[in-house]
Protein: ABC transporter substrate-binding protein
Organism: Streptomyces argenteolus
Amino acid sequence: MELNRRSVLAAIGAGTAAAALAGCGGGASSAGSADGPAKGEITLLTPIYEGADGKTLLEQKILGGFRKKYPDVEVNVDYTTYAQLNEKITTGLAGGLLPDVLMMGVGWIPPFAAKGAIAELPEKFASAHDYEERVLEPSRYEGKLYALPVVLDTRIVVYRKDHFAEAGIRKTPANWAELRAVAKQLTGGVRLGFDPFSIDLRQCWETFLFANGGQLFSADGKKVLFTDARGVEALQFFKDLVKDGSADYARKTDAGAPSNVQTGKASMMMTTSALWNQVQDQNPDLIADDKLGSFVLANRKPAMLQGGTLVTQSARSKHPAAARALVEYLATPESILGAAEQRGSVPGLRDLNDTGYVKENQFVDLSLQNLQHAVSEGGTAAWMEIREKIKPTLEPAVVGGQSAKDAIAELGRLAEAAIGRM
């Protein structure tokens, strides 16, 4: 039978992945003891450390330090992208060839921990460094630690201070009513007042949902909660912005391309702290002239979506001591700081709050000052199936005539079905 990404995802979502997981075992205990000496040849699968600079950082600086500490461990790196990561992991599960150490996104731990694909980590790792507790939450499943955070990617609003000043706007919007009014005031000619769509629609809607006081799922991950008025209102707000002419889904920019705020084609946009690094490379004058500001989205409450990259260990590694040693090393302050600097991401360690990197990157600094408002996506063992359905299900309401209520109801039905198959 042909094995493809859709069939593997369906198997995992339905809780019938026994055959696919046969090569991976049923839990951490199957991996053997991680208490022995760290030695052997292991593989690291990572979607970060992109490009030549990232490869140099990982292989020479970070893994160079790891080799000095663990000379009997050889690390082979398998680079991928977040677009291909889920496929690589699920294919590895099916073939029994899962890498020893994996980097994966926030929200991914419950699905893979529920299937016994990744190993539980010692709880002492959670207190080895001064982690923000909110940062550690996505690393747990049913109260147990399965991963450690490497870098965070927060979703914030960046705005043009010069556009605000020209329009006589003296403060940033405190709620959606003010945001909509300011966006309309700033819209004119080729300029949009607000660009919420240049980040992924899934992440954008989630940020607005959380700012509206909504939730994705119940604490146990078994009940869908986003189908209430909070979720509908979040999607309807996008439709209202488009109706006003102050936002345009067709005018979103691709990752890495000069953003609408950089080019002046938007006065505000949803983005991540990584935009700071991009502006430094592409438009350093905007920073030198203090033309960019940032704030946390708020309506019923302030909310900042917390994504990012976690590191975890395969439950079936043939060299568990070596794999665990690498997981621990990749989550040290030195390794985290290097990865954060390279990506423009947020380090989730209080130990790093006073570093030059944090103080120089104003978007990172804002994120760290507002971690109490951070909310993570995911929260259910069915997340890997649900996450891929959010964007295509909500898009027709944003770009077409479907109502926000109908789109959210359809997404709710899909999510309930996925959870029911677990």
In short: The first strand starts at residue 40 and ends at 46. Residues 154-305+381-420 form a domain with the D-Maltodextrin-Binding Protein; domain 2 fold (CATH 3.40.190.10). Residues 51-69 form the longest helix (19 residues). Residues 14 and 36 are 36 Å apart (CA to CA).
